[in-house]
Design goal:
61 residues; mainly alpha
């Protein structure tokens, strides 16, 4: 089982570097403006939270 954990950690560490290097200027808060897959659920939850805070159509980073 440890092999599975080690593999997942390695993959997550690779993804972390890529994700943290991205600096989008505009984050669309309307889910209809982009195509989404089930793996996007955490991003969609984050965007719903931003909208709940009263942010408008786009959130500027």
């Amino acid at each position: 089982m440890q092999d599975v954990y080690d593999f997942n950690l390695r993959i997550f560490e690779e993804d972390k570097a890529i994700v943290e290097a991205q600096m989008p200027e505009w984050l669309p808060l309307d889910p209809a403006e982009e195509a989404h897959i089930p793996a996007d659920m955490s991003s969609m939850t984050y965007r719903r939270g931003l909208k709940a805070l009263g942010l408008n159509r786009f959130f500027t980073c």
